[in-house]
């Protein structure tokens, strides 16, 4: 492949990451983007950028003909698919080759075989790779699936045959749950992958999810680059990954590596791939699936091997040999990665949208931040809510963990709700610190839910001081006084400035009294703090009651402020009127929490419902969200229909409480 120009058929952090390697190799990069992503960082980073359609992915990032037209128009000789979108679409890989371009990935046959969980499992059983008992047949009738489930036994996993990323997947612990699990998994599989075929597998609970990174060239070399432990998962989606696995012995690593290489050889694999296994406590391991692409978590492997996996992908796609043998692969130290998502852990991880008010990634020894966001960028409901990955490497696991905790605190990300504080809490949990986390860790640790963070009085005082200081600086800018020190001067000591603030849905008035340039006395209900400001946005050093503290902040557009304290972040708003707040919070009103597509409406006017009952299902950010009744009563109004696109705040339904159901 005489590739001087590579088109990256993706967006966000992975597009930026791939382009950095393309530039380092002296090659030219082409970005494609939707209309919604016209100002996105990956567009700015590329040597050339081409719009391929409107915001919906079916009209842009999944539009094969538009991507191929962009490749032809830009003169690209190769296409890198990244992960997600079309990366595991055999039809796309085939279309790229038929267009005379090089697809930087495996062959369409390998993608087809391994992309179909049923076909992959049949191939692995034939190749002698250990697999879990299950059903992967072509008969997809409910009767057959129910009978096979009884044969396999409970608990079991229902999985989309064409799936990945935790979508189209359900854990079934009781027989009564199976019919609904089949229906939900089918619907999600059809919506996400365009294929509703399912497989069944015996569930191994509290196991470890261990995956092996494999690489193969066209000259007969196939090897593995060690493993990653991806056991910390929520709803079958990875949250934290690390390499190497804390409990793997050299002997077990070699055995699992051989099995993974055998899996790759079975389909004549080319390039980077990942073979995923469940590792039981007794050391038994079972094939789960093979991802025929670069993984989200590939940086931890890069940090412990010193290899650039994207550069290797490009090299083998050109036809070059790997020039590596298995004995050349050495694992140096430990690396851990966390994924920062736009989501609200206190609201059952509901995806969040908004505009990024400030983004400033951490820097330091052993720290890497892969991101595809920038200050002032809008977080759209059309795409996956992954914002950035923070990775730390160290000589030991504990050093890597401590560096990662520090990096989370030092990474400024304000303006949209994220899971950063939750990630820091996971890293500090005793089971994680000890390396004992399994796939049941998050459910077992956070089964009762995650409470919302609350700012303490010092943090509230810091926010108030920053707000009034911003106002004072604006006044100084507009003032005609010859001496700024005279601003706010009064012979009687001055009057305290009242601020009506709202935090976490509750509001109160605080008072700010100027004590000199950059110095404020902030008083609230039952507290008072002396605050001195020592720096400017997005990072601020403050002296609160004589104690030095660090914060990050950004002003919003309505006189409020975003404040980050450590890894915790808050939005301090101007308080709304109580009448407005009361109306918005009516218990019987159910509204759309974010823009999305109504997948189903499960109730009708006049129907009695119980608190917690599903009223409708909304699809947003590639996930389905069940909207539930906040109270028991009678449905008095239904305002949406299936297939309707709604905005955040759209009324879904109203429930009137009754004496018999109250």
UniProtKB/TrEMBL annotation:
Keywords recorded for this protein, A-Z: Ligase
EC number per UniProt: 6.4.1.2
Highest taxon above the source species: Bacteria
Record-given protein name: Acetyl-CoA carboxylase biotin carboxylase subunit
Species of the source: Lutimaribacter degradans
């Amino acid at each position: 492949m005489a590739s001087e120009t590579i088109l990256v058929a993706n967006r966000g952090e992975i597009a930026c990451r791939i382009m950095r390697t393309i530039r380092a190799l002296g090659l030219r990069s082409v970005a494609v983007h939707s209309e919604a992503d016209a100002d996105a960082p990956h567009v700015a980073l590329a040597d050339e950028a081409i719009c391929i359609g409107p915001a919906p992915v079916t009209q842009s990032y999944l539009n094969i003909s538009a991507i191929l037209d962009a490749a032809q128009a830009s003169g690209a000789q190769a296409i890198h698919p990244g992960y997600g979108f079309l990366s595991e679409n055999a039809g796309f890989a085939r279309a790229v080759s038929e267009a005379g371009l090089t697809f930087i990935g495996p062959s369409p046959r390998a993608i087809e075989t391994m992309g179909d969980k049923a076909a992959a499992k049949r191939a692995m059983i034939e190749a002698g790779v250990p697999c879990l008992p299950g059903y992967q047949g072509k008969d997809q009738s409910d009767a057959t699936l129910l009978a096979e489930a009884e044969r396999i036994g409970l608990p079991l996993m229902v999985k989309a045959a064409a799936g990945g990323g935790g979508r189209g997947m359900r854990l079934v612990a009781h027989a009564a749950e199976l019919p609904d699990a089949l229906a939900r998994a089918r619907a999600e599989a059809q919506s996400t992958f365009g294929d509703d075929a399912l497989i069944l597998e015996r569930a191994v609970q509290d196991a470890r999810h261990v995956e092996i990174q494999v690489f193969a060239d066209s000259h007969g070399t196939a090897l593995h680059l060690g493993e990653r432990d991806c056991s910390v998962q929520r709803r079958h989606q990875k949250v934290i990954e690390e390499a190497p696995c804390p409990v793997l012995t050299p002997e077990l690593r070699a055995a699992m590596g051989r099995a993974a290489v055998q899996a790759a050889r079975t389909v004549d694999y080319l390039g980077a791939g990942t073979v995923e296994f469940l590792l039981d406590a007794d050391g038994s391991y079972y094939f789960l699936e093979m991802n025929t692409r670069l993984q989200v978590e590939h940086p931890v492997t890069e940090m412990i091997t010193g290899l650039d996996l994207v550069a290797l992908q490009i090299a083998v796609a050109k036809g070059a040999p790997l020039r590596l043998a298995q004995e050349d692969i050495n694992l140096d130290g430990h690396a851990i990665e966390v994924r920062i998502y736009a989501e609200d852990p206190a609201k059952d991880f509901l995806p969040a949208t908004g505009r990024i008010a400030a983004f400033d990634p951490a820097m330091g020894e052993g720290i890497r931040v892969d991101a595809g966001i920038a200050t002032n960028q809008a977080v759209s409901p059309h795409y996956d809510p992954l914002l950035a990955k923070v990775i730390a490497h160290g000589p030991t696991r504990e050093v890597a963990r401590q560096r990662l905790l520090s990096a989370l605190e030092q990474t400024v990300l304000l303006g949209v709700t994220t899971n950063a504080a939750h990630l820091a809490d996971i890293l500090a949990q005793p089971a994680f610190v000890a390396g004992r986390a399994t796939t049941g860790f998050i459910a077992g640790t956070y089964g009762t839910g995650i409470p919302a963070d609350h700012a303490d009085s010092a943090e509230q005082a810091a926010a108030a001081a920053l707000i009034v200081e911003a106002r004072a600086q604006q006044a100084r800018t507009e003032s005609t006084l010859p001496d700024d020190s005279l601003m706010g001067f009064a012979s009687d000591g001055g009057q305290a400035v009242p601020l009506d603030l709202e935090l976490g849905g509750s509001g109160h008035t605080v008072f700010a009294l100027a004590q000199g340039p950059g110095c404020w006395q902030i008083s609230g209900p039952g507290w008072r703090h002396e605050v001195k400001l020592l720096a400017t946005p997005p990072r601020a050093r403050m002296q609160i009651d004589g104690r030095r503290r660090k914060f990050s902040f950004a002003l919003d557009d309505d006189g409020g402020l975003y404040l980050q304290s450590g890894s915790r972040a808050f939005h301090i708003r101007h308080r709304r009127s109580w009448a407005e707040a009361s109306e918005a919070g009516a218990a019987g009103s159910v509204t759309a929490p974010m823009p999305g597509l109504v997948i189903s409406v499960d109730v009708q006017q006049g129907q009695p419902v119980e608190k917690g009952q599903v009223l409708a299902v909304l699809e947003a950010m590639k996930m389905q969200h069940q909207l539930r009744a906040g109270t028991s009563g009678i449905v008095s109004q239904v305002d949406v229909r299936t297939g309707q696109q709604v905005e955040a705040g759209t009324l879904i339904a109203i429930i009137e409480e009754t004496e018999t159901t109250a």
